[in-house]
Every structure is written in structure tokens, then in C-alpha cells.
TrEMBL record:
SUPFAM superfamilies xref list: HIT-like
Ranges of biased composition (kind: Basic and acidic residues): 185-197
Motif (Histidine triad motif): 120-124
Chain positions covered by the region annotation Disordered: 169-197
Gene Ontology MF terms in the entry: nucleotide binding
The organism's place on the tree of life at top rank: Archaea
HIT domain residues: 24-135
Gene3D superfamilies, alphabetized: HIT-like (3.30.428.10)
Protein name as it appears in the record: HIT family protein
Acidic residues compositional bias, start-end: 175-184
Record key words, sorted: Nucleotide-binding
Length: 197
């Protein structure tokens, strides 16, 4: 089998927007445009963000809203939801883009682990295809990459919106609406995904 050398990461995508000032995983969920931020789904404690330096189109990350650097520092509800939201992300990927396989995991610690943001934990969910170094040019025009991610966003967002991912049958949609009353971003346009834990 021929192996094609490709760098692991596509160059950081330059986009026409204000640069993030501070921790992007804290700042992006506070913005009022999930589409622009590439936040594809939200739970109560975690959200799903498309990576803007993707290994493949559809490379997503499950991220807690809390700025937490240690996996064990997440509280139980957030940790359970983190796992559920990862499972939902896998389902959405299957439905939307049908990868041959998926890599999922965390880079913990400093840059030696391969991560670029080491003080706000996040779980990578990376769709893989046979021979996927050819799936998209690894070095290409920025515009092409942005458009590829935008298209993937639409597909994934739609897939999330059709998932049935309520995990606690004891709570109704009305209960969830009440939870929304805490004012945590109700005015945002959200993906139609709300975990109930
Ligand atoms: Zn943060």
C-alpha cells in the first residue's frame, strides 16, 4: 500500500471574524451565533463544536461549558452528559456523513500530548475514511476548507435535530423548558438537542 505523507492538521482556518480573546471554548458558547461559531449542538453542561483545524471534515469536539482542565474535576451530571453527548455525536456522524470509522479521545496535559488547548478539557470525535488523507486536500485554499466545514455543519446539525437523545424518561419536555428558565442562553438559536439528565 502506498502511504501518502500528510501533516496531521490542516492549517488554522482564517475566517472573517473577530479573533477570539481568551479561551475559545469559553468565549464561543457565549456568542450569539452558533452557526458562525460552528457549535453544532448544545446540552445543558456541554456543547459540540466543529474543529476549525480539522483532521477531517466533521472533526468535532464535545466540550463542557465550565473551564475545567482535569477530566476528574467535572461534576457527575456534566460527566454523564459529556458521555451521552459524545454518543449522540457518533450517531449524528453516522447519519450525516457515514464515516468508515471514528477516532475519539482526549489530549491531556501540555503540548506533548498533541493538544493545543490544554486547560479546558474536550473530547475529540474524528470521523475516518479508508484512505482519508485523500478525502480532502490537506493543504488547500482556506475558502475551500471553510466551505467544507460549513457544509458538514449543516449535515451534522440536521442529524442532531432528528436524534432522540433524551436519556432520562422521568423528565418531560416541560421539565426541560423549566430548566431553561435559568437564563443560560435561552435567546440563542440552538440546535434541537437537549439532554435531560
Ligand atoms: Zn475555557
Amino acid at each position: 500500500m502506498d502511504r501518502i505523507y500528510a501533516p496531521w492538521r490542516i492549517e488554522w482556518v482564517e475566517r472573517d471574524e473577530d479573533p477570539v480573546d481568551g479561551c475559545p471554548f469559553c468565549v464561543l458558547p457565549e456568542r450569539d451565533d452558533d452557526v458562525e461559531s460552528w457549535i453544532v449542538a448544545r446540552g445543558d453542561h456541554n456543547f459540540v463544536l466543529l474543529n476549525n483545524a480539522p483532521y477531517n471534515p466533521g472533526h468535532a469536539m464535545v466540550i463542557p461549558y465550565d473551564h475545567v482542565g482535569e477530566w476528574g474535576d467535572l461534576d457527575d451530571e456534566a460527566m454523564l452528559e459529556h458521555g451521552r453527548l459524545k454518543a449522540a455525536t457518533l450517531d449524528a456522524m453516522d447519519a450525516a456523513i457515514g464515516p468508515d470509522g471514528v477516532n475519539t479521545g482526549m489530549n491531556l496535559g501540555d503540548a506533548a500530548a498533541g493538544g493545543s488547548i490544554d486547560d479546558h478539557i474536550h473530547t475529540h470525535v474524528v470521523p475516518r475514511w479508508e484512505g482519508d488523507t485523500n478525502f480532502m486536500p490537506v493543504i488547500g485554499e482556506t475558502k475551500v476548507i471553510v466551505e467544507a466545514i460549513d457544509r458538514t455543519y449543516e449535515h451534522l446539525h440536521e442529524a442532531f435535530s432528528t436524534l432522540d437523545i433524551a436519556v432520562d424518561a422521568g423528565r418531560s419536555g416541560d421539565d426541560r423548558d423549566e430548566d431553561d428558565a435559568d437564563g443560560n442562553g435561552d435567546d440563542r438559536e440552538r440546535a434541537a438537542v437537549r439532554l435531560s439528565i
